Amino acid sequence: MRRSLASLFFVVAAAALSVSAAAWWLDNTVFDPEASADIADAVLEDGAIRRQIATVIADHTANRLRLPSRQLRATVEEYAQTSQGGEIMAEIVAQAHARLIGIRDEPVRITPGQLVRITRDERVAVLPAVTLPVEEVRPVSIVRESTGWLIPISAAIGAVAFLIGLIAHPARADAIFGMGSLLVFVGLMAVLFGYVVPVALVPALNDSTWTAALPLIAKTNSGRLFVGAALLVGSGISLIVGSTALKRRRQFRSPVAGGRYYDQRHWS
């Protein structure tokens, strides 16, 4: 009974800590507009996003510059892939990201100053700001809003459940096994919620152009996630193997029951 109760607390701890870890990771990557500004080059690798920005700018400035919209679009798109253009576009990408996940209420506007820097022509300075068609993805926004309270509450529940499970386990080997299983579970769930969900599930929720930015941000940050998850899983497996060895060693050292020895002498 005591062992089952302790195992139950470890299961609760694993689930709660997994939620907390995943929410923290999403909050600092997929739900962080500053992160998208830092990796704007990766976001702009998406052809649809890059073309949309270039098309909006070209259609807005073509008459003023007396250039064909198609020619100007190609020029802007090419410039967006340079280091200087990427720095300017990073501001737009960060605003669009904030709008997409519900942090920014106002529309994403490309200012006259940004138009001048992107087209490299002062004549567009007299034009008004142009709006980039980016809409909030409500399911993503709801999840983002939830991370604020999910992180501390889940972490607290997980920590308490873990301590209770650790204390309640009647055998040290079982406690170590539970700790190892917890680490493996948390590592796997971190990959599931921190990578698989943003990359595979989010695009299915919304087919807008800018939704593709979220999987790109998740993929760009996946290296650190996979390393952290591998460390958790590796540590967990080590603890599981260690607990198994500890059980075997304890069984090997256990004395042979006296009754068994008597029976052997009696039948010999």
Tag the structure with descriptive keywords:
single chain, 268 residues, mainly alpha, 2 domains, two-stranded antiparallel ribbon, disordered C terminus
Short description:
The protein has about 270 residues and is mostly helical. The protein has helices at about 1-30, 35-40, 40-45, 45-65, 70-80, 85-100, 110-120, 140-170, 170-205, 215-220, 220-255, 260-265, and strands at about 110, 130. The protein is elongated and about 85 Å long.
Helix and strand arrangement:
Blueprint: H1 2-28, H2 33-38, H3 40-43, H4 47-65, H5 69-80, H6 83-100, E1 108-110, H7 112-119, E2 130-132, H8 138-168, H9 172-205, H10 213-220, H11 222-253, H12 258-267
Antiparallel strand pairs: 1-2
Helix pairs in contact: 1-8, 1-9, 4-5, 8-9, 9-10, 9-11
Structure description:
- The chain has 268 residues and is mainly α.
- The chain folds into two domains: 2-29 and 146-253, no CATH class; 33-100 and 102-132, no CATH class.
- The protein is 78% helix and 2% strand.
- The chain is built from twelve helices and two strands.
- The protein has helices at residues 2-28, 33-38, 40-43, 47-65, 69-80, 83-100, 112-119, 138-168, 172-205, 213-220, 222-253, 258-267, and strands spanning 108-110, 130-132.
- A two-stranded antiparallel sheet has the order 1-2.
- The two termini are 40 Å apart.
- 37% of the residues are buried.
